[in-house]
Design a protein that fits this description.
homodimer, 371 residues, alpha+beta, Rossmann fold, Dna Ligase, domain 1, D-amino Acid Aminotransferase, Chain A, domain 1, 3 domains, 4-stranded parallel sheet, 17 strands, 27% helix
Amino acid sequence: MPDGRLRAPLAPGSTIGILGSGQLGRMLAMAAARLGLKTHIYCEHSGPAFDVATHTSKAGFEDKAALSAFAKVVDAVTYEFENVPLRTAGHLAALVPVRPGAKALEVAQDRLAEKTFLTGLGIPVAPFRPAASDAEVRQALAQIGAAAILKTRRFGYDGKGQVGLAPGDDVAAAWAAINANPAVLEQRLAFVAELSALVVRAADGTLAFYDCPVNVHKNGILHRSSVPAALPAEDLAHARQIGAAIADALDYVGVLAVEMFYLGPDAAAAERLIVNEIAPRVHNSGHWTIDACSVSQFENHIRAVANWPLGSTERHSAAEMTNLLGTAALEWQTLAREPGLCLHLYGKREAREGRKMGHVTRLASKASWML
Amino acid sequence: MPDGRLRAPLAPGSTIGILGSGQLGRMLAMAAARLGLKTHIYCEHSGPAFDVATHTSKAGFEDKAALSAFAKVVDAVTYEFENVPLRTAGHLAALVPVRPGAKALEVAQDRLAEKTFLTGLGIPVAPFRPAASDAEVRQALAQIGAAAILKTRRFGYDGKGQVGLAPGDDVAAAWAAINANPAVLEQRLAFVAELSALVVRAADGTLAFYDCPVNVHKNGILHRSSVPAALPAEDLAHARQIGAAIADALDYVGVLAVEMFYLGPDAAAAERLIVNEIAPRVHNSGHWTIDACSVSQFENHIRAVANWPLGSTERHSAAEMTNLLGTAALEWQTLAREPGLCLHLYGKREAREGRKMGHVTRLASKASWML
């Protein structure tokens, strides 16, 4: 299937290849298993996903022989993170369907490409300037003329590769702090809330949407996601439309998360939602769907990848997901005792600071607002 | 730990050994993974559980060397079916905690031992007589003097090893039909409904109860389980009490299912519920707990086995679970499209008649009655 398309749903018993061995790969593998699908994790190092997969390959993303062997024994490939090298995805896509496709990877791997792509779709982003040297950062800061954030174009996540910068600050120090990597300077926005659109798009273009969670970050890392969001219905509908426009433009297959800032009801309707970034994969802010929906984001991603009909994204409960970072996971005995709490641990050995060790979901009756 | 007790909860990262590689072992392994526990499946043949386990051993239950090697690399052992040989459980229990214990196996493996045990606890069972020859069957039928069922004492499940028998019937043929195996003749009861008590008992004796589902069998195999049950609250409370009495008497650890006949409100209160049989394990009639509860029967079984605090057994939705037997599973594409349906496939290749290939759970708002 060199065109990257599956013509028919993959029958139960087929094998889904997953690039990456972290907790997202683990939860994808568990969702695939629910549907009677086997999984094959491919990663250069073992990790949480290895423990629950049917098969595993420990090999590098540049190892073409290993990639070809992997492609031969799987029926479709997906990935748990957006930094899969384009060459890797391209090599595999010549042999087996790879979903979401290369275009989504290309756009999401580079903040400049991403912002340019979004702007081209007429989707608001924070004012930004590319900067490839400290002189360009200085110039960009003068043009933006307000508090800003300097972010590397590539390989930033969970607040890494970022530094705050305001007019008058020491630009050289900021430039050094991001290791002189090509960057984007974007204006820091005063937002009322952060939210994400969680869209799933089937191979035939069918779209489905989970309720948009409100997200709270701490130190640049997601701390909590809650549904339902206490935002006006029209703004939530608009967030879904933005997600849909991006998914359609990328001819996307699978779950797509779009992180946004909500500037509040005082802003003009079309400018209330500003896209922060795109994650072409299942997303931490959708973990609550495991416990609050009949079909989780992980299962719907697998369904899309396997060319299955999408499952319902409806929510049966209100939900609040909290990440267990680092030593917070050591409280598992206390958490395990809490009535109604859904505990998820990823099986990671070392509780390093800021490391995502697990999460908990607290459920309440459907209409509750829980913040 | 030769006394079969764990003193402290098994930390995440520990390994739960599971005897048996079927769908129950598979769902136990997936529940363990949610809690960050690794799994090791031990079975003489590969099966659905192998696909999701961290480690697997393919070896016989009589292979003492393989059992000893297995015991060395796991932190506790449980089983997915009651026909684990007592010698196997005993060999393992000398090396590692085995839960639920040998007593539960001993009682549940033999219908005569089970009925004698229940009668000893004052729990009503259908009138019965042991029968070790066709002459004894004839005598037992005369004593019961009503329509009856001849059941082998051992290795019966899903309606296998059973034959109906009424006064005047050809006893020799019935005796031949069960291969002249030691048997129990029990009176056939006219019941209004079948239900099961789903009890979970922690190592410290703490008890928790899932709502009792009403069960519908077809051809001796479970077809459907629904909660909430439209039975009087006092009878449902009585069903839970029966489950608790059995679990306590067996010093049980884990999930215990007790299948019962409900004779209806016209019978005397103490005689409305008649125990049919005990399953010392997670049970098909509790599969709805995966989708309708924060903590499923599988997770609570693992929690008990790992000496964790029990999780809440509360239900957030009404639920109706239907088994997918044989070719019914071939309808997966239609089922996958049904809004709100939770689809579970076990990854079995061959859809033989009557084989449990998967199940579906339909959810509705909590208070609905769905039959």
